[in-house]
Structures are given as C-alpha cells and as structure tokens.
C-alpha cells in the first residue's frame, strides 16, 4: 500500500501538468493593453469599467477575430515591456509609431494621424512654438510621449519639466508654473475647454503628423496580418465614423471649422 502512494502522486501530478498545458494552448483570449488615463480614447466609466475610442476598437477587433477580449490597464511605461514578455497580445493605447519603438515591437498599418499642440497659460506671451524656445521659459511634458521627444530634440533653450501624468502637466500650466504643455491637438483642445479661464490653445500644426498604430510582439506576423485585415475592414465599413460620432462629435465639428485634418480621415 505504501508503494502505491508515490505512484498515485505521480499520476496526479502528471494529470495536473497536462491539464495546465491544455488550458494554455486552448486559451483563445485576446489580451489588450492600454493606459486608462487618456479620455476619450482610453478611460473608465463611473463604475470603473474601461471605455473610450480604443476600448471600442479593441472590442471590434475581438469580434472580427472571434476571440474574447480582456482589457489590461497598464501604466504607459509598462505597455511595451508587457508586450515583450507576453503578458498582453497587443497594445491599443493611442501609441505613435516611432522608429525607436519599431526596434522592439511591430506596428500595424496606421489607423490615425495626430499633430502636436500647445496648452499655454493665459498670462503667458507665448503665441508659437518658436517663442517657447528661449531661456526662462518652462514647458511641461509627459514622460515617454512624442511631446517629450519633440521638446528634448527641438526646444534646446527651454527648461523641460518631465512629469508622469497628463493631469500633472495641465496643473503646472493652470497654476503658472509652466508656460506651456505639449501634447496631441485633441487633448490640448479638450483641456483648454476645461480650463478656459486660465489657458489658451495653440492648435496650428508645427510638425509632420504622427501615425498611431496597434502594437504587437516582435515577429508575431500572424496576429499582425490579422490586425491589418481588421483595420481595412473596419475603415471600409465606417467603423471610425461611428466612433467619431459616439465620442468625438463636437471635436470633429471644431476641427472641420478650423480646416484641420481629422484623426481618422
């Protein structure tokens, strides 16, 4: 009887391992990473559930691929490492395609075009990006963003205040601690609407457009090709028009009035 105990344990252990392997291989879940701190693209509703442009895009991708979707809320700096380690399958988080990021992950075809803008303190005499590039001026930037890269590469005379969150950057401007905050046009427009008494928005583009793409792990060609097929189908079936109508109707009207190109055109 004593000899049977280890045999039974071995059988049970083997069954557990096989069951675990089977569960892993049959897991069809599509895990999408995004930082839920960028309304209206990636944010939470009143109950704390993910919502926004990128969430709807992720759900539509899951339906197209016939895979259930899980949204993982991950800090911006952790998105690419999470992709590299296999914690998530894709990143849909308003991420700009850059050559530096291309070195470590792959991107889908671009699905949106964005430009940078400036949120300026209302008492500041700044009216252009050139006027910001001088000693004594301070600009707030969110770490790791293309606004941060633009400032470090082009505003050599400006003091750069790199912070961890968009809200912290905005507060620096509204309180007069920074002359400006550099970010995408749409966010600048929305933050100006929320802080009209203390800020003004400079929305005229001062650099080439930035392309947003869906990030996948390096060399995951099968998923990448499927995502590109989905984006083509989604655009052809007016999916981006529906998202604009749901989340960005007022902004679209304003951009049309200013004759600015729209994100998804």
TrEMBL record:
The Ionotropic glutamate receptor C-terminal domain sits at 29-250
GO terms (molecular function) for this protein are: ligand-gated monoatomic ion channel activity
State the GO CC annotations: membrane
Q: Which UniProt keywords apply?
A: Signal
**Signal peptide: which range, if any?**
1-19
* Solute-binding protein family 3/N-terminal domain location: 29-251
Q: Coiled-coil stretches, from where to where?
A: none
Q: Which InterPro entries match?
A: Iontro_rcpt_C (IPR001320), Solute-binding_3/MltF_N (IPR001638)
Q: What is this protein called?
A: Amino acid ABC transporter substrate-binding protein
Protein source organism: Vallitalea longa
